[in-house]
Amino acid sequence: MFLQWVLPQLHMSWPGFRRVHGQVCKHLEQRCKQLGLPDIVTYQNYLQQQPQEWQVLDSLCRITVTRFYRDKAVFAFLAREVLPTLIHQAQTRGAQHLRLWSAGCAGGEEPYSLALVYQLGLEIKPGIGLHILATDADAHMINRAREACYPFSSVKNLPQTWLASAFVQREELYCLKTEYCDPVELLIHDIRSETPNGPFDLILCRNLTFTYFEQTVQTEILARLRKALQPGGVLVIGVHESLPTVEGLTVWSERLGIYRRL
Ligand SMILES: C[S@@+](CC[C@H](N)C(=O)[O-])C[C@H]1O[C@@H](n2cnc3c(N)ncnc32)[C@H](O)[C@@H]1O
Fold it and tell me: With CB atoms counted within 10 Å of each terminal CB, which end of the chain scores lower, N or C?
């Protein structure tokens, strides 16, 4: 099968794509059409003659499925345990802001969920500012995040009261009010490249590195993520993911994929 041939060459892992490969196949069909190629075998030959096409192929392998408040239990745990601890830690060292990074942020659903939790979901007023860096390799996703308007299917997991108070409805879409967008800085960035300027109190890297990349790439990225965390800072991965190593980290909640830098 084409994907099983191509993914190892992109340092990606087939098992991660098994359940969702339909999305990649659709991208491949569109690409063949765009190039005027009749089928995937012809595309395979085209790849061998046009080395620059591998970069395009890499972008066709991005899975962008997400939603607000994905894995509710994770956000509840962040609100109840993690954010209050990180706020306290930041205040103790005299920081003015908590710095978070959502890596692979898709259309903004994850970083905006964090902004909502911070502003609406904490038991106490934080008393410290918030800055969220939200990055994705896909420019189209970053543009969607800038628009910050979503169909109901994306926002339906959110508590009803947040939906009513933090969004304005425009026709069929739910558009996030500016005050919840403001703490989020959006940037096109590939997780395999150099880490953006840290240190961060919290990094979310969910349903990307530890699902779709092969182990050596996972290990390299993990080392960089760990380095980008404050001591005592927290890394959150997807609930169905696991880390290639927990060296230099302690487990906060294995079930929720939450780890802390030693
Ligand atoms: C499945 S979504 C996960 C979104 C969100 N983190 C979540 O858990 O719901 C994966 C996102 O990672 C982005 N992505 C894929 N490859 C990437 C890369 N090399 N660097 C940065 N982002 C990437 C995709 O464009 C997509 O938006």
Answer: N
- CA–centroid distance, residue 190 to ligand 1 (Å): 9
Residue 115 sits in the same domain as residue 222: yes
Q: What is the pTM of this model?
A: 0.97
The rounded Å distance from CA 207 to ligand 1 centre is 7
| CATH number of the domain enclosing 168 | 3.40.50.150
C-beta 192 within 6 A of ligand 1 = yes
81 and 208 fall within a common domain: yes
- Taking the centre of ligand 1 as the mean of its atom positions, its distance from the CA of residue 128, in whole angstroms, is 29
Q: What pLDDT score was predicted for residue 134?
A: 98
pLDDT tens digits, one per residue of 206-223: 999 999 999 999 999 999
Indicate whether residue 136 lines ligand 1 (CB < 6 A): yes
Q: Within its chain, how far is the Cα of 221 from the centroid? A: 14
Q: Which of 62, 70, 192, 203 to mutate to test the pocket of ligand 1 (most atoms within 8 A of CB)?
A: 62
- All residue ranges of the chain with pLDDT < 50 are none
Q: Which domain holds residue 78?
A: 72-261
Please give the full DSSP string across 71-126, using - where no structure is assigned. SHHHHHHIIIIIHHHHHHHHHHTT-SEEEEEEES-TTTHHHHHHHHIIIII-SS--
> CA torsion 138→223→97→183, rounded to 10°?
10
Same domain? 41 vs 84: no
pLDDT tens figures, 21-72: 999 999 999 999 999 999 999 999 999 999 999 999 999 999 999 999 999 9
Query: Would you say the CB of residue 261 lies under 6 angstroms from ligand 1?
Result: no
pLDDT of amino acid 156: 97
